[in-house]
Amino acid sequence: MDYQSTRNPMLKASSAQAVLDGLAPDGGLYTMPSMKDIAFDWKSVLDMDTQGMATEILSALLPSFTKDEMRVLVKNAYTGRFETEDLTPTVRVGDDTVLELFRGPTSAFKDVALSMLPQLMTAARKKCGVDDEILILTATSGDTGKAAMEGFCDVPGTKIIVFYPDGGVSPVQKAQMATQAGNNTCVCAVRGNFDDAQTGVKNVFAAVTEGKLLDGKGVRLSSANSINIGRLAPQVVYYFRAYANLVKDGTLQAGDKVDFCVPTGNFGDILAGWFAKALGLPVGTLICASNANNVLTDFLKTGRYDKNRPFYKTVSPSMDILVSSNLERLLYLLSDDAALVRSLMEQLKTEGAYQVPETLLARLHEAFWQGCCDDEGTKNAIGMVWREYGYLCDTHTAVAWDVAQQYKAEHPAHNHVVILSTASPYKFPAAVLAGIGHSAKGDEFDVMEQVRNETGVPIPKNLAGLRERSVRHKDVIDREAMLDYVLAKAAEKEWF
Ligand SMILES: *Cc1c(COP(=O)(O)O)cnc(C)c1O
Question: Is residue 418 part of a domain?
Fold first, then answer.
């Protein structure tokens, strides 16, 4: 099975090439032609450990890699890097299950994918006979950047530049990035919001490809954003992990359906859930949870995507996104119509909006439900979950928790609900502390201590002592300067 662009079925690439390139040359996203091309026996993985599941699922989704090759890559990516060997534990909270995706090296759910991507990418580089050094460009709303650098840190043959919106990430996220170790890592703030940074990265890719600006220079660009299929595929695994855990503890019988509620930004995490469903996992409804930037809530209700609206900075900043890039893959896979996708994406670019046909909207409604929760609701949810169940959740998880309760209230016959928890509460301590009814004193690092003193929940190792680490990355630039910045960095042999 070859991959192809979401905008042109003639533009094909092996799955290894798709991982290496990140974005298709026409600006589309690489996708399998159809999920039906993938044969997968979902029941056969339920008794496996998480690494075994990952091996089966990833070699099915990325057929350039044999099962034996994949087993080694999975082992390299995950062994000893997470708090628990099952990587993503499940916890019962009231009537629902919380799937904890934040037990990795940077306390963010993106660790699951970004531990795996460098392995896939360096293996893909060998498979495709590429000698060039790989320069990863990533735009981040906070968590991706740190997790990507941790994944790529000192991986031979790779370098990584992370752009984040200046003032658009939490102080802890900023400290995590600015203190990043490694001789191949680079962090730069961009004046603007996340969409500016992400559009800027896309424009750099386009300019470099069109102008052949790096040809013959021994460097090639790639992406670690969730537009890379190598980012998306590893996320499918934890949907299976959660399901298998629920079968094991007797909450479910194999075959029963489960609803998943996903705090959504760029639509990568929830799309991985749709992939799991397409591979046969008994998924009922995928509930798309948004914060005040509820462009996806409106879209899933009406079929009209409209990014012409105010942009809010919320207490769940990793979801402060108005252009959800991965939605494009879903639109393609549900419509099987690359020409339609091309035209919709063209309208998004020129008018900032598009409307999908009725038939496509009906297919969206079969698989998805949607809801949103503002900052007030987010803090209330944190307080409520803490008081009722003694469970401390972060702001993104709280959005999902609130939307899951909305869903259940409207659907009395719902299935068991799994809420995806995407960050440690210690990544957003001020909002979490406010949620449990205390006012913050001092800077965000003091607030972490306060949260620990109030709740007794331990601070993850990678976040404790962050304040004492020395800052290594200080650059701030205008978004118009991103291309020149990348070209200058690409020409520098040694960064440190
Ligand atoms: C990235 C992120 C999300 C959103 O995930 P998408 O795949 O972009 O939809 C949610 N919560 C946290 C904490 C994140 O870092």
Answer: yes
Residue 435 is assigned to a structural domain of this protein:
yes
CATH number reported for the structural domain that contains residue 363 in this entry:
3.40.50.1100
- 269 within ligand 1 shell (Cβ under 6 A): yes
pLDDT tens digit sequence for 126-163: 999 999 999 999 999 777 889 999 999 988 899 999 99
Mutation test residue for ligand 1: of 195, 235, 262, 266, the one with most atoms within 8 Å of CB:
266
> Which residue's CA is the closest to the ligand 1 atom numbered 11?
422
489 alpha carbon – ligand 1 mean position (Å) = 28
pLDDT tens digits, 325-359? 999 999 999 999 999 999 999 999 999 999 999 99
Query: Nearest CA to 385 among 340, 419, 349, 350?
Result: 419
Which pLDDT tens digit goes with each residue over 367-411? 999 999 999 999 999 999 999 999 999 999 999 999 999 999 999
Give me ligand 1 centre to Cα 158, in Å: 24
Q: Output the CA 140–ligand 1 centroid distance in Å.
A: 10
What domain count does the chain have? Answer: 1
Residue type for position 400? A
CA–centroid distance, residue 263 to ligand 1 (Å): 7
Question: What is the secondary structure of 61-77 as a DSSP string?
Answer: H-TTS-HHHHHHHHHHH
Taking the whole predicted model, whether its pTM rises above 0.90 is answered as yes
Distance CA 262, CA 247 (A): 20
